[in-house]
Write a sequence for this structure.
């Protein structure tokens, strides 16, 4: 069984236009050309955001990343994924 794990940014793009903090985070990430767009790594993304984002944005990231992980529960790398 092969799993495809999308990057955090790819996953976050699913929430474009959502009128909730997750949609705000998506909009901010989408317009940031230096965001680590291929990353799936919590620590890498967190370190990047700590240099640029507000505490509220960091809290939103933590909640979103937990949701991201849970959406990939079957893939070994994150504790999740989906079959292709």
């Amino acid at each position: 069984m092969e799993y495809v794990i999308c990057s955090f940014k790819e996953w976050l793009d699913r929430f474009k236009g959502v009128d909730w903090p997750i949609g705000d985070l998506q909009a901010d990430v989408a317009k940031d050309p230096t965001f680590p767009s291929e990353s799936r790594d919590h620590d890498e993304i967190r370190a990047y955001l700590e240099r640029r984002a507000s505490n509220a944005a960091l809290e939103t990231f933590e909640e979103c990343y937990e949701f991201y992980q849970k959406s990939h529960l079957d893939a070994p790398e994150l504790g999740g994924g989906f079959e292709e």
User: Anything to note?
Assistant: Strands lie at 3-4, 82-83. The chain has one domain: 3-83. The domain at 3-83 is CATH 1.10.150.260 (DNA polymerase; domain 1). The mean pLDDT is 88.
